Sequence to fold (116 residues):
Amino acid sequence: MFVHVLKSKIHRVSVTEANLDYIGSITIDEDLIDAANLIVNERVSIVNNNNGERFDTYVIPGLRGSGVICMNGAAARKVQPGDIIIIMAFAMMELEEAKTYKPTIIFPDTTTNKLI
Fold:
């Protein structure tokens, strides 16, 4: 049996931009992508702590060290710059592996989105 488990989490970052005129996705600073063990084009779930919105999109790389968290396309309507969000990725694995798997969770500074 396979189960879905949390693989990666960026806990509480600030949205820096919302770009409605883009084809879709979330732009994330490459430092955060690396630290959270995410990969470009990976599906992620977003939770907006300010308004309760929950939605899925995919990762595109942002300028390394910039702190950028930009919601693109239609998802830009679900956030405002300054909103605090949580970004999560999940993996499917065998039940026995899932029991001992340890996800990568990072806690950036919410004012700069930089690693602490």
User: Anything to note?
Assistant: Residues 2-101 form a domain with the Barwin-like endoglucanases fold (CATH 2.40.40.20). The CA atoms of residues 4 and 110 lie 28 Å apart. The chain has a mean pLDDT of 97. The two ends are 38 Å apart (CA to CA).
